[in-house]
Amino acid sequence: MLARKSIIPEEFGLPGLASRMPRKPVFRDRVNKARFIAKNGSCNLAHKNIREQGRFLQDVFTTLVDLKWRFTLVIFTTTFVSSWLLFAMSWWLVAFAHGDLDPERQNGTHCVTDVKSFTSAFLFSIEVQVTIGFGGRMITEQCPTAITLLIMQNIVGLIVNAVMLGCIFMKTAQSNRRAETLIFSRHAVIAVRNNRLCFMIRIGDLRKSMIIGATVRLQVVRKTTTPEGEVIPIHQIDVQTESAVASNSLFLLAPLIICHIIDKNSPLYDLSAMELQCSDLEVIVILEGVVETTGITTQARTSYVSEEIQWGHRFVPIVTEEEGVYSVDYSKFGNTVKVATPRCSARELDEKPSILIQTLQKSELSHQNSLRKRNSMRRNNSMRKGGSSGNLRRNNSALAMPKVQFFTPTDGGQSLNAVT
């Protein structure tokens, strides 16, 4: 038995219509991957399988400075206690070789007075190296070996003090501590400025002491493949900024907006708003300068991935003039506002400048329509308030002058007379 044909032709069915409908480009979901620079500026990089560990010992001072505080304090304490114990053993051996530990020996022939045990030798070692000098123990002229040992301990003690105290000082005065007060906006924005599509971030300094010769560098890091098939996992591409074109340094007196014009030389030139959401690029921002109070070079870093880049937004102004003083409101440091921005790439915008004009015209019309709606709503509200107030007045007048009826008797009977 043959199957009955459908009344609707096949070309007008759901499969036929679906095949002929224009499909929008489908972008793959962005795979979550680790970022190279964290938001706090730390490098997300792990070193493995380092065979030449001895190279770290060739630069002991830098290795001690780079260690964590708990390891530095343990090494600091262990070094001093070990040096005291080592020279305490040396003083005890000198006293033992000279016969000072014999209780029948007179005090005038001792190398070091009142050194009669290892404990007293340890206390004397601490007095010599730390230069406390309680006065109960002292070296005499009877033993040249003790004089030589005293000179050696003084020299070694000075070296240990210089290295350990210098390490502690450098850890407390590291340049990255100054970078804690250099802040970046949480998000980056892409909007139109001076008829060009621009990538913008905001930077600021919370301290009154300025950063001298501040410079900002932008880099785009992405995974690329060369025409020869070589895979470069960390391909760093320098990004030019307006400040770098105009001068070599920034005057970071108040928060500044760093702007990168997306032109033909920009790695963001071919990215549209949709493609940016699916890309795996990372924009690294590096702020360098010299601290005014200490003269030490400092560096602050952060990065922005595609989820942290807002297309069609602009930073709100935060600097105002109040009573002759410029005031900065840091509560609005990262606030942005939506603006009219084409969703296409910078390349398409350069090829078709009419897209920008149409976008601006649409935004102007929508702005005018919103203003008209607001004005009409205000008029309606005012009319409603006026009508309600008129009704209230009428009601009040009616309540103020009520009708009163008086009943007066007549000769022929009772009649009703209404008096107002």
What would you say this structure looks like, in words?
The chain is elongated and about 115 Å long. The strands form five sheets. Strands 1, 2, 3, 6 and 9 form a five-stranded mixed sheet that branches. The protein has a four-stranded antiparallel sheet with strand order 5-4-7-8. Residues 1-7, 22-31 and 397-420 have low confidence and may be disordered. The chain has helices at 14-20, 54-57, 60-66, 69-98, 118-130, 144-172, 175-178, 242-246, 273-278, 346-351, 354-400, and strands at residues 182-184, 188-193, 196-205, 211-225, 231-239, 256-261, 282-291, 297-305, 309-311, 313-315, 319-322, 325-328, 336-338, 404-409, 414-419. The protein starts with 13 loop residues before the first helix and ends with a strand. It is built from eleven helices and 15 strands. The chain crosses the membrane at residues 71-94, 146-169. Residues 37-174 form the Potassium channel inwardly rectifying transmembrane domain. Belongs to the inward rectifier-type potassium channel (TC 1.A.2.1) family. The record marks 161 as: Role in the control of polyamine-mediated channel gating and in the blocking by intracellular magnesium.
What separation lies between the terminal Cα atoms?
A: 98 Å
**Largest beta-sheet details:** 5 strands, mixed
What is the structural class?
alpha+beta
Mean pLDDT: 79
Q: Write down the CATH topology of the domain at 178-352.
A: Immunoglobulin-like
Instruction: Give the % helix.
Output: 25-40%
Q: Please report the number of helical segments.
A: 11
Order of helices and strands: HHHHHHHEEEEEHEHEEEEEEEHHEE
Beta content:
15-25%
What is the CATH architecture term of the domain at 178-352?
Answer: Sandwich
Note poorly predicted spans. Answer: 1-7, 22-31, 397-420
By CATH, the superfamily of the domain at 178-352 comes out as G protein-activated inward rectifier potassium channel 1
Give me the count of strands.
15
* Rg for CA atoms: 42 Å
Shape: elongated
Query: Class of the domain at 178-352 in CATH?
Result: Mainly Beta
Catalytic activity: K(+)(in) = K(+)(out)
Transmembrane segments: 71-94, 146-169
Domain Potassium channel inwardly rectifying transmembrane: 37-174
InterPro entries: Ig_E-set (IPR014756), IRK_C (IPR041647), K_chnl_inward-rec_Kir (IPR016449), K_chnl_inward-rec_Kir6.1 (IPR003278), K_chnl_inward-rec_Kir_cyto (IPR013518), Kir_TM (IPR040445)
